[in-house]
Protein 1
Amino acid sequence: MSDKASEVYEKTMRRAAYERSLTRRRMLQASAAAIGAAAAASFVPQEVSAASGKVVHFAPAGKRLDGTLRAVQPLFNKAFPNIELEVASLPVGEALTKINTYMNSKSDAFDVITQDHAQFPALDAIGALTDLWPWLEKDKAWYEDYKKDVDANYRSMWNVPKGPSKDEGGAGYVAAITPDGNAMMTFYRKDIFDKKGLKVPETWDTVIDTVKEIHDPDNGVYGYAAAMKRDFWSGYQFYGILRSWGGDHFIDWPNGDFTVALNGDEAFKSLSMLVELAKYQHPVSSNASEDEINASFANGSALYSPLTWGTAVLNDPTYTDLHEAWHMDLSPRGTSEKSAHRALAGGFGQFIPTWAKNKDAAFDWMKFLNSPAEDVISAIVTAGGQPSRSSALNAWRDRKPFFEGLLKAFPVAVVNAPVIPEAYAIMGATGEEVADACNGQKSIEDAMAAMQKRVTRIMEDSGYYN
Amino acid sequence: MTARSDETRLSPSAGSALVSVAMRSIRAQRRRLAYFLMMPSLVVLIGLSIFPAVVSGILSFRVHPLYNPNVARFIGWRNFEDLFDDARFWESIRLTILWAVVVVAVQMVLGFLLAVLLDRKMRGIGLLRSLIIIPVFISPIAMGLTWRFIFEPVTGLANWFVSQLGFEKYSWLSHIDTSMSTLMIVDCWQWTPFVALILLAGIQSISPEVTEAARLDRVRGVTYYLRIILPLIRPVIMVVILLRLVDSIRIFDLVFITTKGGPGSSTLLASVYDYIIFEQGHLGLMAAYGFLILILINIIVVLFLNTLYRTEKAARLEELK
């Protein structure tokens, strides 16, 4: 019997003795209670950790990000009274760069950090990531359950290098775990599509016709909306289409060929599609990040987006009256041989910085946050989160069509950027050119030439061609 | 006794040497005290200004990717060459100059008119002056976010008003043709009261004898302001222009929050572009651009101060004649 079980047993027996008038019935009750308590306590030891002290978790702000942490925090405080948890946050646009700056300065201010997937190669280059194996090894039951429940394709994105981890026969180490699942998908108003007898476009060649069918700007309704803010937002839109045509930023980066391929046919088709779609776009799109696009979906002025990161918020009745009307599906694919549905997978993972002061307690918190326990999942989902665990997605899919979309997307998910430290710079550079082309400030050809030149320069600077 | 006194008495030359040593010691002590007292300011100046400037100067000659610092190295003038070859860089300089000229001109004209309106004795004028300065104190982030929602093209407050007045909805921040002017409106809304209050202080510091004499000479209306007030507050005007000009060239927060330089690159002002270069991790390029902005601001300030000095000198000479 564990210490805790013995303590509960003794306490129960003392109480029974104190009552003096021991009847056989009471004795049986006391014994049953003691056995029950001992049995219950035996399931707890993983949560009653020897770790203690303070854990500071830094996360970008937002319902889905720091919001879910704060929702789980009271449950954690109850289960781990010895660990003092503090959640710190900054607006998402600022946080992503700041995290890398903190890590460049080897800051020990944080024990856990939530960061976007695309930043992990850069964090690895800085030496900021901790191999989580020593802690995963200590609680194999939890790890096995996590592995079984989170789609392998999605989970392996958080290993460095991407792919199976060493314990699964691969080369990577587990650098982060994530209770947050995300992928670029099609968002559409099912009620409008049903009413007009439209199908969700399966391929890019049917997208414009579909948009034309539902576009009605005179009545304040737009057929297309997307986060086309300059910089990386536009970069992701472009990359989403490019991948679906079988293209990429480089000829074959997984095998080490980093020759820039942004002057090819796939890049042309992808950029042309975005320029064409811009003619029908909701006016907020040209300056929009996810927040503005979600607002345009929520207020009913935008009806369709073939590529959106989105969030589960559109299925939240407190956010929009249209929470049942918004459905999600796979984004369109190209029509060439190389084409396929390739959902850009994003999401945020939690890592322990190399310079963290309280790694044991930090991992306890991460494990708790990634627990399959119903109350934890419920806290995350009701706070606006979007789990990565299939069991959680399945349990909530009826109430959240977004989760249905995620379940479809994970098996065809691809990384949302080449897994190299320069990914963010590349997304930014390509995004600027895409934004200029879509706003008529550059021709498609000029924008492609500029992308090719800029990405080549980034790679040259990083010594890829030496 | 006398002999001993003679022994201890110093010759005149030895005495003056002693005095000079004592003086030197006192001067050295004073110098040490002066250095000691200056130390905090020197530490702050070196730590917060000179050191970062030197580091950033060195950085501007290096490739130093934020996301992959292992490959950092010296590259000579290449960052500057890259910037001069970049059409977006020149466009950002053009937009910044356009921005500075337009917003400062509008703010000066509107600020002066506002100052004239506020320069009168009436009930509640003190409260009005206090209220009018409120925009200056609003956090730029909060203000930027609020204006972003106001200018939301479909459901925003601005277009609601426009449509209530029977006009077509305007694209505000959402179109390359209107985004810059929309941001200028916001900047003028925020800073015109500041200009007005400074000019008002200038107007109210004019000697009553002068205004009385003008009144007796029946100088009124526009002539009074053009011939009497404006020349007298010229030094104040020049200082306000200088302050606003430098501030306008450095504008960042409002643009970053509302458009981040978009749509396309239509509001990509110098500071925003420099920050985006940083965000994309090109620390060397960012430092090079920062230096160019610094040089641009210095050129403008020197030119301006020179003009101010010359006009003031000419005015004084005129007065003496």
Protein 2
Amino acid sequence: MRDRITAFLVLLPSLAAVAIFVYGFIGQNLWVSLTDWGKNPAQALALRPELHFVGLENYLELFTGFVDVRFRQSVVNLIFFTLFFMGGSLGLGLLLAMALDRGPKGEGFFRTVFLFPMALSFVVTGTIWRWLLQPQGGVNVLPTLFGLPPFHFPWLTTRQQTWVFDWNQLPFYTALAVGLTLLYVAWKAHREGERKRLFWSLLSSGVLLVWAFTLGRTTHLLPYPEPHGFSLALVGVILAAVWQMSGYTMALYLAGLRGIPVEVLEAAKVDGASEWQTYRHVILPLLAPITLSAMIVLGHIALKIFDLIFAMAGLDYAPTDVPAIYMYLLAFRGNQFAKGAAIGILLLLLVALVVIPYLVSQLRKEVRR
Amino acid sequence: MGRFFLHAFLLLATLFFLLPVYLVILTALKEPAKITLDTVWHWPEPVYWESFHIAWEAFRPKFQNSVVLALSATALSALVGALNGYVLAKWPFRGSNLLFALMLFGMFIPYQSILIPLFQFVKAIGLYGTLWGLILVHVVYGIPIVTLIFKNYYSEIPDELVEAARIDGAGFFGIFRHVILPLSAPAFVVVAIWQFTQIWNEFLFAVTLTRPESQPITVALAQLAGGEAVKWNLPMAGAILAALPTLLVYIFLGRYFLRGLLAGSVKG
């Protein structure tokens, strides 16, 4: 009995620390995000600032306020960064793993080379790529070594945007995207004969799509059009991030490929499947769980990306802005603590959206086992 | 034909991964006056080692901060993790699984969501701008991952070993000291490597909670490279210095490095 109490007492400091530093701080941050801390410059840096409850005002301002246009562009940037970073790292990682799976000479060497950027910090990677992506140097003059004309893409310094859309159409596009995703879920449920899932996904998809095409088109967040788009300055950031992380997806995929039983591949061969068909119908489906885990990890990294952009473009450069950068800028340079806290909460919600379904599915799998 | 494409692809990929490294070394070895954009890829003539000397002089205090920070935070958090893992794996009590799950949640949060209260807290207890504040923060937010690794590892140790020691009259710490600890080396290696690389490379906490005299090298490097007037040989030499410790760990302990990577890949 005495030992059991000792055991509990040993664990207690850690429990208390997590309770305060994780749960307590999230609660406090939520509270701060609902106050006016930072609105009054005299109060901003006071030791015991006088805070007033303002409800969701900070959140509303971020999405619809005149001054926070930078936040909205940072959200758009984050979406594009996440998509391309995930796609790039998964694609390149898979290709590298497939190449290494064929057992080329010097496999160990290649593996080490592809994986080493993982050991670097995002700050080091960012510093390196900032230099590589100088508009008149680095990557752009590389072709001249072979007598070719240099590239002229201005990388980080461009302010150009493509795929520009009006922020007011965001509710419409969001409803459309989620509705179509749910429609796909419904289709899969139909094929797997899961009636309950089919019903609910079909219903919610229908509601969303109907809303999107009726009210959604006329719902305006702002009284004026506000263009946002894919900021091309992010291309360089994405390149650097893929350089750093694709070795990691390669390691995951390679482990997965090596884990596929030889009999399965033999069977496919006996059935007369071509190499392409084997990949398409046998190997890739078997790698799907790995893709999902990798997507979670990469998505998690992407949503809170901060150091890479800090090192590549600094805090004050709007074209490469993401919410984590804007949050830091607001809170620790502008003393707008309440609004910064609101962005922190939004990031937490985003990450929860990605991680919680994954954890639940993992848990279910373990229970089934 | 297939072999040809395979090797061509591998060669291209190798260039993609190694050309940046080549350029970093090249630039670090150039005389500042000779760094011009159109000759970036030319080998330095003559090789200029001075950059490393200057960078080392400039970065030495920060490098030392990083060493103290990473080593002490790693040691502390490995100790905490071993004890936590031991309790959770071998002395479970009612509700301990739930508490463990609640603890793991701390791994997944984006630290932006606690940064402002954390900043206030560290300031309030008088540790703002000190290395100790940063060490404390790293140990605390490392608890979930290190506990997870040690708990998983200790779950593999048969309970009979613990039982036998108990019958022989050993207590909680006696069993830990004489039965568990001697078997723990692999877990300690994985945790130490994981925490060391994480803490050495960390930036967000460091930039928020330190003053210039307590900055680790990541913050100093980001600020040096951010200044426009600076010549690029220094940031490049600095980047090499900042990368060297974790790179050495990767090269010499790569196997364990990968294991930690796969174990703790969803850490915040």
